[in-house]
Specification:
Layout (H helix, E strand, L loop, with lengths): L13 H22 L27 E5 L9 H14 L3 E5 L6 H13 L4 E4 L4 H13 L4 E4 L18 E4 L2 H20 L5 E6 L5 H16 L5 E6 L4 H14 L5 E4 L2 H13 L7 E5 L3 H9 L2 E6 L2 H18 L6 E3 L3 E3 L8 H8 L1 H9 L1
Parallel strand pairs: 1-2, 1-3, 3-4, 4-5, 5-11, 6-7, 6-8, 8-9, 9-10
Antiparallel strand pairs: 10-12
């Protein structure tokens, strides 16, 4: 196994980041075009591929654990999981995705400890709690297991002593910046539509305690304060249970009839929020600013219920770290530290840019079933 090389600071050259991003986009699109029909085939035909060569481990199939806080029941994580498995197949690697069935730091730590005990070739991991996962990363580093962080990581400087230098890199977005961007868009959209800023807002948090969602909330709140808007922003906990979340959202809207905007932090909140607007006949009265993407979110954008969503491209968060791990393990190529996959505001004007991506990714579900059995 190749030893883990300590990395320097977090800063990267913008030009190099752009080059890396373009290369990965070409790889992803090329792979999708090779395997996915744009015309939605009635059946999936698996095209044989020549197994990728790994000069550093010619007689060994690499095993990489992908440990995440993201439950497979959360719609956001479906393309992440599928992309990771798909990339593993392309590069002849075994990718094992594991996550708690519901959000739990303690259960995720146990999964990570079990993964390290299995002595994998590499570890891809989300960091929903910096303090909880410092020991995991340090243990992996001591054991010579390379680590790539994905989706969520403590912002630079927020947690002194966090072992950034003991990880190869980070693939994802910075959630505080995503929250700021969402607030800026909400304010601009509401002022352009109604001639005044929004002042009655509720944020529904489907995984209270998750670092990334907490940072999104802070970004939204702080941007409203910085804009000088005297807004009431309530934060309400919901869950990954659709029926329970729908009931909570509808009860809140009935008790707060002056609500103008709902902020949902992922599809687990957006899906019941869209249903609540329809159930209570609040179309054109209460709008949703979302994070992340699923079919319900896209339909909400198209019909005007959702004014926009902050996209962090989850497929890329599954695919890219597996590619980076392959290049590192097999060729000793260390990745750029930060590969940002978002944020990007998706709205009525930009939704068409994602139609092919969404269609192509959706076709991977039967494909993956075919290749994995």
């Amino acid at each position: 196994m190749i030893g883990v090389t300590k990395r320097g600071g977090l800063g990267i050259a913008k030009q190099m980041a752009a080059i890396i991003t373009l290369v990965v986009i070409v790889v992803v699109l090329g792979a999708l075009l090779a395997y996915v029909s744009v015309s939605k085939p009635s059946k999936v035909t698996v095209t044989p591929v020549t197994s990728a060569v790994c000069p550093a481990h010619p007689d060994q199939k690499l095993v990489v654990y992908f440990i995440s806080h993201g439950s497979p029941t959360d719609p956001f994580w479906i393309p992440v999981i599928e992309a990771a498995v798909y990339a593993g197949h392309l590069f002849n690697m075994t990718v094992i995705y594991e996550a708690p069935s519901t959000f739990s730091i303690s259960e995720m730590v146990e999964l990570a400890q079990s993964a390290l005990a299995a002595k994998p070739s590499g570890l891809i991991i989300t960091v929903p709690s910096g303090t909880a996962f410092e020991p995991i990363i340090q243990e992996a580093y001591s054991d010579g297991i390379p680590v790539i962080v994905v989706n969520v990581v403590p912002p630079p400087g927020s947690l002194p002593g966090f072992p950034y230098n003991e990880t190869l890199g980070y693939v994802g977005q910075y959630d505080y910046d995503a929250g700021v961007g969402a607030a800026q868009y909400m304010i601009q959209w509401y002022e352009e539509t109604y001639g005044k800023p929004p002042t009655n807002i509720v944020i529904f948090n489907h995984e209270p305690g998750l670092l990334g969602l907490t940072l999104r909330i802070e970004g939204v709140e702080n941007e409203f304060k910085a804009s000088g808007i005297n807004a009431t922003i309530n934060v309400m906990p919901i869950s990954l249970n659709y029926a329970e979340s729908l009931s909570t959202i509808e009860s809140y809207l009935e008790a707060h009839p002056n609500t103008q905007l709902m902020v949902t932090l992922g599809p687990a909140g957006t899906d019941p929020a869209v249903a609540a607007v329809k159930d209570l006949n609040l179309q054109g009265k209460v709008y949703i600013m979302a994070f992340d993407i699923d079919n319900v979110t896209i339909q909400g954008i198209e019909n005007g219920t959702v004014i926009g969503t902050v996209d962090q491209q989850p497929f890329a968060q599954g695919f890219m770290p597996v590619v980076e791990m392959y290049l590192y393990l097999c060729y000793g190529i260390a990745p750029q530290y930060n590969v940002t996959t978002g944020p990007f505001i998706l709205n009525k004007q930009t939704v068409q840019l994602y139609q092919y991506q969404l269609q192509a990714v959706s076709e991977l579900s039967p494909y993956l079933k075919a290749i994995t059995g």
